[in-house]
Structure formats: structure tokens, C-alpha cells
């Protein structure tokens, strides 16, 4: 146990996190922990008393997101590429559970960097999964996406058994990795769980304005003209804090309930069309919006979140409707004044120099 770990709450005490193999609090390696979801998840885990190791290569030059927690008790950072076996070995040292968030995330960035996307989201992630047993990892949580459902009939709610219809390289790689894990459940000791997460919204230390709710909110709060494509297409949304809560819920559930299971993460109430989202913002701010038909993104899906609710007791706590006025105030209070000049920090637009397509 390091000096920092000794400052964590006592493992095994009432209300504290489970004891890990070190005899101290369980340690979670969050791969991609410096990103939008990871920044919130890591802080939530630390606040609960877990030890956390972040493995991240700051793909968008966004090390700023971890500055404030570098010296937190229980926190360790491994700055490196998940595709390197030596980096993975260093990051998994003393770790009990692994959460794999790191990927090229989103349709546009995966289209822009197809080779890098396959290399990280498939080859690198598969090699990481293969290393888990060697390091005696107990739980593995993979963040997949509801984008896997792609295109659904408006009247049908997609559930975990619905057929998958990935419409982008991003979703193809997520489906590919899901199938890779599910295809070898019996040959590994680790307990894996696959989460198909709704499109995220909410505030994070690594804010992303390339995500629909956040993007619409920033533009409308600033009264910048906004073009909205295919206004009647449905999409489910999930707050970053709820995503973190769902991941922790899986880590803390009986393995029999989560081993080899797929769960959608979000809430039925946060299924919205783009026009409905715009309506939410227009309740609070008057802004110029133009609706444009036949955009490049054909995705249309509404999703059921009944399984995670009934099997694990997970209920989302945050709604789009509550977040909308918060985001408008945050933008109008000047929090994101540098979002245009520091564009790569605030979204997945361009990978930093020096990241090789393949290793
Ligand atoms: N944001 C969403 O709307 C959303 C929706 C559904 C699912 N998800 C899933 O949640 C996860 C996190 O998404 P996010 O929005 O935080 O994305 P993000 O792009 O903000 O974070 C990804 C992180 O992974 C890191 N990373 C990428 N390649 C790496 C590599 N080779 N080695 C080490 N680190 C690497 C990046 O530096 C970044 O910090 C992803 O798996 C994504 O598919 C996100």
C-alpha cells in the first residue's frame, strides 16, 4: 500500500468499498480515465474510497483534465498507449477491476482516423482483454454504445436482444469488440460486463461540445445560429454522472448478475428527438435555430432501459430537462469562453501529433 493509499477510508468498513487484493480498498484501472466520461467516473470512484489508476495517452492533448486530481489520495496516472503491452502491465499492477473507456469515440473522429480507430478500438482493446487474467483482474466493464442499434422503427424500443445495425466505423468496432468478449466468456477467469450507453450529456472536467445536448446548449446559450439536421430522429441520452453510477453499480453487483451480461445505460425519460431537445432549450433561451432535412447521420433509435433497472436496481438520477438551464447558465457565466480557441480540448475533432496509426 502506498502512502497515498493509506489515506483512503478503511476497506471493508461499513459503507466503504470492498477490500482489494492488496488488503486495502479495491483499485480500479480506468483506461481512458482522462476523457469526458472518465473525468467524472474517476472522481466519483475516488470519493467513494476506491484506489484509481488512470491509463490514458491524452489523445486530444487534454492532460488539463487530470491536473486537479494528480495528488489525490489513491490516484495513480500511467501516461501511455493501451496498445503497448509494457504500458498495460504497468497500469494493471495491483489493480482489481478494469473499466475500458478508451477508444476513438464518435462517428466523425472514427471516420477521420479509420486505421487508428481499428487499431485502438479492436486490436489494442482485444490485447488488453487478453492480459486481464495474467494480472488476476476480477471485473471488466466495457463501455459500448446504443449507436450499435443504428436504425430502428420509430415505434419500437430497442432492448439488449434487438438486432444490431452499426452505421459507422465507430459502432462497427464497438459491436466487434462486444462479440469478441462474448465469444470467449468460458475461457477467461475475469467477469466481463458490456454497457451500451446512451449519448452522454452533462458537465465534466473534459467537456465535449461535439455531443448533441452539449453542442445545442452552447450554441443556443451564445445565440450562435444552429443548424439541426433530421429533427425527428430519436436518440437516448444519459448524464455523465449516471453513466459513472451505472459503472459503479456493475462493479458492486454480484458477479452472477453481471457476468457476460449486456445492459443499456440511460433512462426511458431521456429519449428525445432533436426537435424535442431544441424545444427544451427554447423554454429558457431565445436563439436562432434552422431545421435541415437529410443530414449525413441516418441514426434513429429509441431504447429501453428496463433491464438495468430490474436486474441491478439502477435508476438514472439526472434528466435532460434539468440539465438544460444549468448548461445555459454555465455558458453565459463564461465557463467555456475558450472552447473555440482550445477546440481540441473541448471535443473529439483532431488527434494530437505523434500518435501512430498502428503500433
Ligand atoms: N460520450 C458519449 O456520448 C458516449 C456514448 C456512448 C458510449 N460512450 C463510450 O464511453 C467511453 C468514453 O467516452 P468519452 O466521451 O469519455 O470519450 P473521450 O474521447 O472523451 O475519452 C476517451 C479517452 O480515451 C483515451 N484514449 C484513446 N485512445 C487511447 C489509447 N490508445 N491509449 C490510452 N488512452 C486512450 C483518450 O485520451 C481519452 O481520454 C467510450 O468507450 C465511448 O464509446 C460514450
Question: Would you kindly provide a written description of the structure presented here, covering whatever features stand out?
Answer:
The protein is α/β, with parallel strands linked by helices and 359 residues long. The chain has a domain at 19-203 and 237-268 and 299-317: NAD(P)-binding Rossmann-like Domain (Rossmann fold), CATH 3.40.50. Helix content is 32%, strand content 18%. The chain contains 11 helices and 14 strands. The protein has helices at 36-48, 85-92, 107-112, 114-131, 169-182, 212-222, 240-251, 255-258, 274-282, 306-312, 320-332, and strands at residues 27-31, 51-56, 75-79, 97-100, 139-145, 157-158, 191-197, 199-201, 226-229, 234-239, 261-265, 271-273, 289-292, 302-303. The strands form 4 sheets. A 7-stranded parallel beta sheet has the order 3-2-1-4-5-7-11, sandwiched between helices. It has a 3-stranded mixed beta sheet with strand order 8-10-12. A two-stranded parallel ribbon has the order 6-14. Strand 1, helix 1 (36-48) and strand 2 form a beta-alpha-beta unit. Helix 6 (212-222) runs parallel beside helix 9 (274-282) and helix 6 crosses helix 11. Residues 1-14 have low confidence and may be disordered. The structure holds nicotinamide-adenine-dinucleotide. Residues 32, 34-38, 55-59, 81-83, 101-103, 105, 120, 124, 143, 145, 197, 199-200, 206, 208, 211, 348 line the site of nicotinamide-adenine-dinucleotide (NAD). Nicotinamide-adenine-dinucleotide is lined by residues 32, 34-38, 55-59, 81-83, 101-103, 105, 120, 124, 143, 145, 197, 199-200, 206, 208, 211, 348. This is NAD-dependent epimerase/dehydratase family protein. Residues 28-266 form the NAD-dependent epimerase/dehydratase domain. It holds the Pfam family Epimerase.
Amino acid at each position: 500500500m502506498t502512502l497515498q493509499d493509506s489515506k483512503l477510508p478503511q476497506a471493508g468498513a461499513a459503507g466503504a468499498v470492498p477490500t482489494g487484493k492488496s488488503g486495502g480498498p479495491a483499485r480500479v484501472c480506468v483506461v481512458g480515465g482522462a476523457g469526458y466520461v472518465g473525468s467524472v467516473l474517476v472522481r466519483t470512484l475516488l470519493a467513494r474510497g476506491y484506489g484509481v489508476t488512470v491509463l490514458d495517452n491524452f489523445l486530444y492533448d487534454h492532460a488539463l483534465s487530470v491536473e486537479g486530481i494528480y495528488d489525490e489520495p489513491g490516484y495513480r496516472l500511467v501516461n501511455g498507449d493501451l496498445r503497448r503491452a509494457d504500458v498495460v502491465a504497468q497500469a494493471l499492477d495491483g489493480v482489481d477491476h478494469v473499466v475500458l473507456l478508451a477508444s476513438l469515440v464518435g462517428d466523425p473522429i472514427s471516420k477521420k482516423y479509420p486505421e487508428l480507430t481499428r487499431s485502438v478500438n479492436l486490436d489494442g482493446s482485444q490485447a488488453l482483454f487478453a492480459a486481464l487474467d495474467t494480472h488476476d483482474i476480477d471485473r471488466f466493464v466495457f463501455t459500448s454504445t446504443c449507436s450499435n442499434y443504428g436504425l430502428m422503427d420509430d415505434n419500437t424500443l430497442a432492448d439488449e436482444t434487438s438486432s444490431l445495425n452499426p452505421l459507422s466505423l465507430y459502432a462497427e468496432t464497438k459491436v466487434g469488440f462486444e462479440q469478441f468478449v462474448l465469444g470467449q466468456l468460458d475461457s477467461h477467469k475475469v467477469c466481463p460486463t458490456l454497457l451500451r450507453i446512451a449519448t452522454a450529456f452533462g458537465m465534466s472536467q473534459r467537456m465535449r461540445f461535439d455531443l448533441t445536448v452539449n453542442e445545442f446548449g452552447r450554441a443556443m446559450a451564445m445565440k450562435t445560429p444552429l443548424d439541426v439536421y433530421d429533427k425527428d430522429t430519436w436518440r437516448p441520452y444519459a448524464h455523465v454522472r449516471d453513466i459513472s453510477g451505472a459503472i459503479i453499480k456493475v462493479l458492486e453487483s454480484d458477479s452472477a448478475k453481471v457476468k457476460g451480461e449486456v445492459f443499456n445505460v440511460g433512462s426511458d425519460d431521456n429519449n428525445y428527438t432533436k426537435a424535442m431537445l431544441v424545444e427544451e432549450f427554447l423554454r429558457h433561451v431565445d436563439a436562432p435555430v434552422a431545421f435541415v432535412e437529410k443530414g449525413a447521420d441516418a441514426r434513429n433509435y429509441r431504447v429501453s432501459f428496463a433491464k438495468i433497472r430490474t436486474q441491478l436496481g439502477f435508476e438514472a438520477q439526472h434528466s435532460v430537462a434539468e440539465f438544460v438551464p444549468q448548461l445555459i447558465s454555465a455558458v453565459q457565466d463564461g465557463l467555456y469562453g475558450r472552447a473555440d480557441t482550445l477546440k481540441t480540448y473541448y471535443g473529439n475533432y483532431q488527434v494530437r501529433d505523434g500518435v501512430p496509426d498502428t503500433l
